[in-house]
Each structure stands twice: as C-alpha cells, then as structure tokens.
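Ticket #4471: structure export looks truncated?
Reporter: QA, pipeline team
Priority: medium

Steps to reproduce: submit the single chain below to the structure queue and open the exported record.
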Amino acid sequence: MHDLWFGAFLSPEAAGRDRLLRHVTLADRLGLDLVGVQDHPYQADFLDAWTLLSAMAQRTERIRLVPDVANLPLRPPAVLARAAASLDLLSGGRVELGLGAGAFWDAIVGMGGRRLSPRESIEALAEAITVLRALWTPGGPVVFEGTHYRLGGARPGPFPAHPIGIWIGAIKRRMLELTGRMGDGWLPSSFYSPPAVVAAQAKVLDAAAADAGRDPTEIRKVYNIGGTFSPLPGPGFLDGPAGLWAEQLTELVFGVGMTGFVLAPGPEAERDLRVFAEEVAPAVREAVAKERGRPAPVPAERPATLTDLDETGRPRTPSSAPSTLTPEQQRYALRLVAVHDGYRQEMRQVQDAIDQVAADAAAGRAPHTAAGRVAPGAGHSPAGRLATRQNHWTLGTLCATFRRLLTVHHTAQDESVFPALLEHDPALAPVIKKLQQEHELIAELLARLDGACVALLSDPAGIDRVRAGAERLATVLSSHFAYEEEELVEPLGRLGTGL
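Actual output as written to the record:
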C-alpha cells in the first residue's frame, strides 16, 4: 500500500520564472511531497522542463521532482534515461518520471519530431519504457531492435539513486491498458478526467493490471487537480473550504485508489499551496488512517520556515555621495520612497481595520445606534451577527487586496527592476539576493495573514492571530523598506529607473 503524497503542479512560464522558483521553494518548505512540471518543448513561452527541474533540485531539499509528463516524441528514451538518472543522482534520489505518448502533433512536427498515429504512439511508448529500464539496469551493452527505437550496444548507466517510477499520463483505453501492464504509476488530470470519469478509467487500468498478473494496488495513482478555496461550498469539484476538499479527496482514495494529489494552484498560489499543505493534506491522511484502523501519520520534520529577518547579515555596498546625483536622477531615486510610503499607509489601514474588528468583538457589538452607542442586545441578534460577519469579510478583502498589490510590486522588482540594476552595477548582487530572500519571507507572512483573515469567518476568536500576523508583517516591512531605500535609492537614480 502506497503512502499518500501531495504535491504542486506548476506552470513553467519563462516570464514568471522568479515567481515559479519561489513557489517551488515554498512547496518544499511546506513539506509537500512532489512538484510536477509540464513538458511542452514546442511552447516558446515555456522553460525547458529538464533545465527547470535541475534548477528546482538545486533550490530544494526534500521535494520529489516529476516531469508531468515528459514529451516522448521529442525526447529520445535513451537520452531521457541518462537525464533522469543524472538528475536523480544529483538530487539525492528525488526524481520520478512522468511519461506521455505525445499530443499536439503539428507542434511536435514543427520542432522536428515524427508524426505518429495513435497506435504508433502507444507502440513507441511501450518500446521507450523497455529502453529506459534496460539502461537503468546494470549489465552488459544493450541491444534492442524495436519498430520505433533501437539500441546497438548502448552501455547502461548512470544508475539512478533509487528505483525511478515511470508514471504514465493516460486517458484512453489502450493507454490505460498499457499503464496497467507496464507502468509504475498513473497520472490523470481532473481537467480532462473529472472524478466520475477517472473512476471508470481506473477500472480499465486495474483490469489490465490483473490480466497481466500484477497487483493493481502496486500502481501509484497520482491525480493532477485544480479547484477553488472559498468559505462556502460551491457546485463543482474542489470548490469550497479545506474541509470539503479533504472529504472529496478522501473519497477518491477509497473509491478510486488514488494515492497522490498534485494541485495546480490558482492566482493566489502561495495561499493555495499553504492551505493544501497545512489543512487539506493532514486531514486526508488522518481520515484515511482512521478508516484503515491505523495511527494517524506523524508529519515528517520539514525544513525550518523563515520567520525572522537576519538584519545583522544584510550585505552593504559602498555608494557615492548623494550630491553626485542630478536633480532628474534624484526624482527617479525618490520614487521608490514614495511607493514604499504608499504601502506603509496601506499597512496602517489594515492594522486600523483589525483594531476595529477586535474592538467590536470585545464589546460584543457590530451595529450602533444613531448616537454611536451599541444597540441593546445587538451583539447577539441576527443583525448583529450579520454585521460582524460583514466586518470580517471587509477585513479579509482589505488584507487580500494589500497582499495582491504588494506581490505585484515585488514581482516587478524581481523580474524587471533588479535584473536591470544588476546589469548596470554587478556589485549590487549580494544586496539584491538578500532583498529577494526577504521578498520570500514577506510573501509567506502575507499568505499567513490572508489565511488568518479567511479563518475569521468560521472562528471569530481568531482575531488575535490576525492581529499578531499583521504586527509581524508591519515590523518586517518597515525594516525591509528601510534597507531597500538605503541600498537602492542611489543606484536607481543613476540607472534612471522609476518604480
């Protein structure tokens, strides 16, 4: 019986590469089990999957790395075997291989690949699996004569650090039957195979495995999923609070045999990953353990999460006297201060709103009389409860808006402003690296505050957690803004870049 795995499915867009790397770092810190990356070599806006997975391995410590799924028609299996084994060795045994027979054939042909019929593509996939396993197995030179792939005495190796699983992306019957016969795992997606469909597909796969003399439970079933976290249940699959997600995913464990779930996060990616890792995954694991009569699993120790600024370790760079800036350069330089002043003011507004909600809660009130006094009994009336809930919604909206705006600002710095500064003055590299690390911390604190505000809807007593989160965020922002202004105001003026 496989352990339950939970992961993140991240889009490899080249324009969002810095944000993407922050998300995989966050997934690793949150203790998620794996990260999946699309492989579309013909997509000009995407990073190459294997190059990206290598960069992810360098930035993470524990999370497993999976091409979800590798495009076989553009990646010869002998070379793919070397690449997967090499990354597995370099990452300490953290690679699994998602594999697809191919799709979007016009684009594949445009990249120099062969156009295959459905039957041919499945034949090629079966041959590729044979080639992969042969080159991962110690022994003499491999000779293989297939219709689509041939080896004329290739030497096996390098050998992976652990047995790499071959997980097949399969939807239709013949691919499902191939997965049942030859696959170590199955990678369906809720975007193409919603729960009712995936349940029927699993039956085809399981029957093929049994016919091949295999135990169907040996095949790991990993479901790529998407959904929406919201306070109230919606009409669709994975549309509602974390508890609803846990119930629906638990049903898939018992009804379909799913042993892994990989989330494609929405626009609020940091929040989605955090809720998925900290609320949904533990609840599913606990429910499954309880049903099977086992002790609830103890969460694995995970790397420490950033909680504090290392102000003493901040690098500094020498700067020229301010008088060397022209008046025009000074105007450019001071735009950063003006932008920061705007965020300082918005942070104070968030804190003021928290204080007001806390005061109302302490007084047991929401509505007031025309004279400003609390209406008698209002705190316990339906109108009072409704007004209190409205206050929580308003605060949550204010926190979410602040988070979105500050995230846009930091993303623009990471992806545009900082690279321009580095090109103009490479000596700033230590400072900019430190500022980017602090951006990760701020993103984490923003996500925590946002989550605490959402939790208020079901637990009004959580206002203390919201207040503590806001105070911590305000302290970090104040220090971060001051450091950034000290180090970058003058370089920005010289570069002539306004924020």
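Status: closed, not a bug. The export was complete when the record was re-opened. Leaving a note from the reviewer for reference: DSSP finds 13 helices and 13 strands in the chain.
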